Amino acid sequence: MNAKPGPAGNCPCLSGEAYPECCGRFLSGAADAATAEQLMRSRYTAFVLLNAEYLKKSWHPSTLPADLELDPGMEWRRLDIVSTHRGGPLDTEGVVEFKAFYRHDGERGVHHETSRFVRENRRWYYLDAVA
């Protein structure tokens, strides 16, 4: 079952907070993520909600792909943050390792990634994934 939130439902990032107080405020443009982890969680939520515009907006221009198509058949089920390094409100870079569990065409899978983030002009951006 895909974890799409209702107006006051739990956030798909599984923070335990309601969507409007968690990732909803970032996806709506009402606030910017204060940490790399918050940006990571909001980007996961954008994948759940098929919000390509937010993904592009939160992607650093130097690594933003020319084309971004999201697969509506991808069901994102759960996000686990494995570790974070730096990425706080006063840092300029951060790393978040995560596992995103999904179901696609009846098959289960896990996307395991270590993401790098940069903060410019008080705003966090996804930079890229490292091996």
Notes on the protein architecture:
The protein is α+β, with helices and mostly antiparallel strands and 131 residues long. It has a single domain, classed as Nuclear Transport Factor 2, Chain: A (Roll), CATH 3.10.450.50. Helices cover 18% and strands 35% of the residues. The protein is built from three helices and four strands, in the order αααββββ. The chain has helices at residues 24-27, 36-48, 52-57, and strands at residues 75-86, 93-104, 107-120, 123-130. It has a four-stranded antiparallel sheet with strand order 1-2-3-4, covered by helices on one side. It is globular.
Give me the number of helical elements. 3
- Kindly report how far apart the N and C termini lie: 30 Å
Structural class estimated from helices and strands:
alpha+beta
Strand percentage: 35-45%
CATH class: Alpha Beta
Mean pLDDT equals: 94
The description of the largest β-sheet is: 4 strands, antiparallel
Helix content percent band: 10-25%
Query: What sort of overall outline do the alpha carbons produce when their principal axes are compared?
Result: globular
State the strand order across the main sheet: 1-2-3-4
Count of spatially separate domains: 1
CATH architecture descriptor text: Roll
Can you count the beta strands?
4
Question: Which stretches are low in confidence, meaning pLDDT under 50 for 5 or more residues running?
Answer: none
* Gyration radius over CA: 14 Å
Compressed to H and E, one letter per element, the order equals HHHEEEE
CATH structural fold name: Nuclear Transport Factor 2, Chain: A
